[in-house]
Amino acid sequence: MKILVTGASGLLGLNLSLMEIGTHTIVGVDRAKLANTPFELIRAELTQPGLWSRLIDEVRPEAIIHTAANANVDSCESDPQGARYLNGELPGILAASAAQAGVRFLHISTDAVFDGTKDGIYTETDAPNPLGVYAQTKLDGERNVLSANPNAIVARVNFFGWSLSGTRSLSEFFYNKLSAGEQCNGFTDVYFCPLFVGDLAETLVRMLDKGLLGLYHVVGSEALSKYDFGRRIARQFGFDESLVIPKSVEESGLKARRSHNLRLSVNKLSTALGQEIPGVSTGIARFYTQAQQGYPQKMRSYQQ
């Protein structure tokens, strides 16, 4: 299967594009951040009118995984109009182009569409209630994708791993601080289900291979607080766990509101794929192994 990946320089896009996936071929789309990649790379601006019809004709992919977005929560608050187009409107346009060409379409959304007030675990049937611009625009994107292309997949995700800049994921935040011997805050009142980006990439490809469609929660199978996540990173790398300082997100000074409870059920996904979804423990171990093998340095070698 030939898969076209948007946002190929992003945390998910680059890890997905670098993944060894057997008979599948990746073609990445990026503006100008990458060079000398081991996968085919197309330089393009996603917002260029008519781009996607031309790209689909030229590349002839069997599937598109749309990872590109403005994922900076506070940046979206500062530029709501830009976020509305990139996160909300553009995914629907791309999904429509894919549907017209008969190409599978998988759109990446977020667990942040929920307000986190539920006393329990969120399923795909729970009504979203976004707290800020980022979450609202991502929800708009979900709805526009499925309206334009009912055969598309929408994957609500939360993931961690190594990125091109080394500063994009929560795991990198903790690693960078702890490896320098610096204190860092870990929120004790924000619960989430992080999935290692390598596990996420492999799962997304399996979803396409299985011919799934519709909405799925694609997160880790284990929930924990961000404070506990930071301590687990410290433990895995042999850093001082006491450098992770317990703190409430309400005292963080962050511009956009954050949800306290983002425990998501993966039962629907696990059942559809016929396999268990990995948890955070194995993911952190893989994150550590990649560090030992020089994977972060390898990624940075592709930076333009």
Compact description:
With 304 residues, the chain is of the alpha/beta class.
State the end-to-end distance.
28 Å
Under CATH, the topology is which?
A: Rossmann fold
The description of the largest β-sheet is: 7 strands, parallel
Q: Helix/strand-derived class?
A: alpha/beta
| Helix percentage range | 40-55%
Number of domains: 1
Principal-axes shape call: globular
Q: Which CATH architecture would you pick? A: 3-Layer(aba) Sandwich
Mean pLDDT across residues: 94
| Total of DSSP H or I helical runs spanning 4+ residues | 11
The CATH homologous superfamily corresponds to NAD(P)-binding Rossmann-like Domain
CATH class: Alpha Beta
Descriptive report:
The protein has helices at residues 11-18, 51-59, 73-78, 80-101, 133-148, 170-179, 197-209, 226-237, 267-273, 280-292, 295-300; strands at residues 2-6, 25-30, 40-43, 63-66, 104-110, 153-157, 159-160, 184-187, 191-192, 195-196, 214-218, 224-225, 244-247. The protein has one domain: Rossmann fold. α8 (226-237) packs across α10 (280-292). The radius of gyration is 18 Å and the shape is globular. It has eleven helices and 13 strands. The relative contact order is 0.15. The model has no long low-confidence stretch (mean pLDDT 94). Helix content is 40%, strand content 17%. Strands 3-2-1-4-5-6-11 form a seven-stranded parallel sheet, with helices on both faces. Strands 7-10 form a two-stranded parallel sheet. The longest helix has 22 residues, at 80-101. With 304 residues, it is an alpha/beta fold. The two termini are 28 Å apart.
